[in-house]
Specification:
2 copies of one chain form a homodimer. Chain A is of the alpha/beta class and about 300 residues long. Chain A is about 55% helix and about 15% strand. Chain A is built from 14 helices and 9 strands. Chain A has a 6-stranded parallel beta sheet, with helices on both faces. In chain A, strand 8, helix 8 and strand 9 (about 160-165) form a beta-alpha-beta unit. Chains A, B: Catalyzes oxidation of L-threonate to 2-oxo-tetronate. Can use either NAD(+) or NADP(+) as cosubstrate, with a preference for NAD(+). Chains A, B: Its EC number is 1.1.1.411. Chains A, B: It catalyses: L-threonate + NAD(+) = 2-dehydro-L-erythronate + NADH + H(+).
């Protein structure tokens, strides 16, 4: 038996996990969830889910568990630690592992899951909190055909697009890591360029307009520069996400003697921004770091966003 | 008098200048052009233009001169050097200056032009050789209303879009410089990410497909990665363009104590790629540099492109 296929656990109820839980509830699943934050647990209960005190209680008898915690260490703890998910899931259930992590860690967890009689899908996500809530995430997934089959109803509920990247766990994580390398560099470059433009006394709104129509544009430039123009650094995605993700990129590079000068420069900028007290602010805060250093003034928050 | 308004000189007949000359000829202008290369001069003659031996002869009596040489030093030489454009143009004619340069250089040339009784439009271009040939460039222009008015027929013939960025010469150049900062960083990041993906043993064609649908994408990623996938490093835009343009970015940063860690990392990569013998190859050759350093193999040229 593989448990009741309508029972799904979601462990980690941050902005992404909670959004995914809502999408699953809307799709008719019985969702039980777990998070250290009381506020997050209440939000799940308010959305029609069941808040559990431990990962194990959330996963008890479920056919699938979606793990949306911050990193590999937390994923390992909630899966295989005390009161963990793996020991509680129904035999043959599938773990959908969505935290960004090094591919080697994903492989290690998949082997442990297999030893426990469980399926494992390496399934990092992208798209942000809004798309998590609307069930329109992008999933970069790899794993055995059985794992895909078992996870399919869950994927259908949370994702607009599932990239099926191969049968080996680790590929999904590798794709996500490459994406994060680019995303992090593009955010840091956007911030560097916008404050540099300010130093040249340019009209920043005009710079945004011209660059987004030119060869210098990027998805991140288009998405993050409006935060700078509005002076709104409330965290849609925090600086700490990129110190973490570019940290993983850096670890992998060092592990295989692969030089990453551009990604490393970006990592150092996110670290400097975090060190300046902005770790929990929006990642466009790298622009505020440049402005602080150079004594330039960026747009102040409008009344709406202040 | 301002010369015959149908007489336009184009100085610098590289892939951009020649394309712009063709667009002007197609729009009915009498185009005389000048370039050090005999091949380029013949190509202009073949396209219906008139090849001249010096910038001055090309500009003699023209109402407008488009300067599309490599940098500020060349622009200064063809405008104000021996047999230069400025002394040959009709009084009140307009100089359309399209080489990428520091805004301070543009201002200096505009002052010299004004002293010679000429109008000056600071008008860097973007879009590549194909759009130059089809008359669909993007122009980032600034200058006095009189200069815009005088240059309008020329701009209409060469550009799909003219950003009118203000009355002060230097603003157009500043916008172009900000665009080049981002473009250069994005190319270097795309190359770093693609070879890093190779080190993770990923299918590069699949990486291109997934990233272009994700938050990690950029205009340059979409445009340059196909060169890597096809193993085709024939120069659509050469490495030397970015050692030059990021060099200007770096000079400006140093001149005003503005730190540019991301742009500097990218500049060093383009310099390393040039030092490795690829200065005249396509700028996606930064990927070949990473591959050489790490001993990884990138796609070989297909028969079509070899």
């Amino acid at each position: 038996m593989t448990g009741n296929p309508r029972n799904v656990a979601v462990v980690g109820l941050g902005s992404m996990g909670l959004g995914m839980a809502r999408s699953l509830i809307r799709a008719g699943f019985d969702v039980s969830g777990c998070d250290l934050s009381e506020t997050a647990r209440s939000a799940l209960a308010g959305a029609g889910g069941r808040a559990a005190a431990t990962p194990g209680l959330a996963a008890k008898g479920a056919a699938a568990a979606v793990i949306v915690v911050v990193n590999a260490a937390q994923t390992e703890a909630v899966l295989f630690g005390e009161d963990g998910v793996a020991a509680a899931l129904a035999p043959g259930a599938v773990i959908v592992s969505s935290a960004t992590m090094a591919p080697g860690e994903a492989k290690r967890f998949a082997a442990l899951a297999e030893a426990a009689g469980l399926l494992y899908l390496d399934a990092p996500i992208s798209g942000g909190a809004t798309k998590a809530g609307s069930g329109e995430l992008t999933v970069m997934a790899s794993g055995a055909p059985d794992a895909f089959r078992a996870a399919r109803p869950v994927l259908d509920a949370i994702a607009a697009r599932v990239h099926e990247l191969g049968p080996d766990v680790g590929i999904g994580s590798s794709f996500k890591i490459v994406n994060q390398l680019l995303a992090g560099v593009h955010i840091a470059a956007a911030c560097e360029a916008m404050v540099f433009a300010k130093s040249l006394d340019l009209d920043l709104a005009r710079v945004f307009e011209v660059i987004t129509q030119s060869a210098g544009t990027s998805w991140m430039f288009e998405n993050r520069v409006p935060h700078i123009l509005e002076g709104d650094y409330s965290p849609r995605s925090a600086v700490s996400i990129f110190t973490k993700d570019l940290g993983i990129v850096s670890d992998i590079g060092r592990g295989q003697n692969f030089p990453l000068p551009i990604a490393s420069a970006a990592l150092q900028l996110f670290l400097a921004t975090a060190a300046a007290g902005m770790a929990r602010d929006d990642d466009a805060s790298v622009a505020r770091l440049y402005a602080q250093i150079t004594g330039l003034e960026l747009p102040a928050p409008t009344e709406e966003t202040a």
